Amino acid sequence: MTDDADPIKAALAGIEDPLGQGDLVAAGRVTLARIKDGVATVVLDATGFSAEQRALAERRIRAATIAMPGVTETRVAMTADKPERAIVAVGSGKGGVGKSTVAANLAVALARMGKKVGLVDADIYGPSQPNIMGQHGKPELIDEKIVPTPAHGVRMLSMGQLIAPGTAVAWRGPMTASALTSLMEGDWGDCELLIVDLPPGTGDVQMTLIQKWKPAGAVIVSTPQDLSLIDATRAIDMFRKMGVEPIGLVENMAGYACPHCGENSDPFGSGGAEAAARTMGIPFLGRIPLRIAIREASDAGRPPAAGEGEEADIFRGLAVRLLEQLKEGAHAAHP
Ligand code: ADP
Description:
Radius of gyration: 22 Å
Distance between the termini: 23 Å
Bound molecules: adenosine-5'-diphosphate
Order of helices and strands: HEEHEEHEHEEEEHHEHEHEEHEHH
CATH superfamily of the largest domain: P-loop containing nucleotide triphosphate hydrolases
Number of strands: 14
Strand content: 15-25%
Number of domains: 2
Number of helices: 11
Helix content: 25-40%
Largest sheet: 9 strands, mixed
CATH architecture of the largest domain: 3-Layer(aba) Sandwich
């Protein structure tokens, strides 16, 4: 496929930057410009533009590109003034499938790849991130914002750090929403990615997160059994209905390698999630085996993704595929 980036840049270079710094291209505002199958896609950094300036820039980009030979349609996307922060929800149909383990290790793996990552433990009914990440410190409150605590290269906030250990949390909707708000509106600084560990199922926290913070996508964790997959399908349906793209299914606890004899067995079956992902038309991000080492590392507050070896590699693979899916979503600029 040929890359037609240059002619389109030349066309855009004819448009003045409304903030008086030469043209849009020279001002470094064009972050993506391409023509593919007759569709011109332009992503513009509109930092500092007023609403009128944005509208004017968009009109001019449309006029300049549609005048190009072969272009039948133009899509323009403007990035927000704030540093873009992608929110990735990690959910599951039911509890105990390893959703928190996957959320923590994905966060750590992404941080090791150089991303600035925040981890929000929104599983208010059973916050397990302080244990998994080995971070029980009480976060500080500065200017009415909670300051996330560092752990394994990730910044994290958990309900578990805010409430007394063992306190039964039986909140109603509004309290849940305000607790989630304190976490989401914490001082996340320059975090590019916020991984949100949701409670299992489809309740108040999910609804509030989707309505108020519009995640870029959702990762669903399931074990290979049919029953778990039926629940996962329900969670995927909910995200879809609420306009959040399921960016991938992860199969956890797939296949058990006996630490003594090395023999592989499949206590919960294997491959079910990959087949289910195909049926539902969502990407399959990967498979994590059932390993005692994974449970032990989690119990000890050392996520395997922070170490070396096969488990760390598995989580890095998931993180790479997650980033690929996020990138594809970002390129699907809306007209
Ligand atoms: P959830 O968030 O879905 O409730 P957790 O992440 O808390 O599930 O995992 C439940 C239990 O299973 C924890 O003790 C965790 O250490 C363990 N676990 C999760 N994934 C694996 C795995 N791949 N191998 C072994 N143990 C696992």
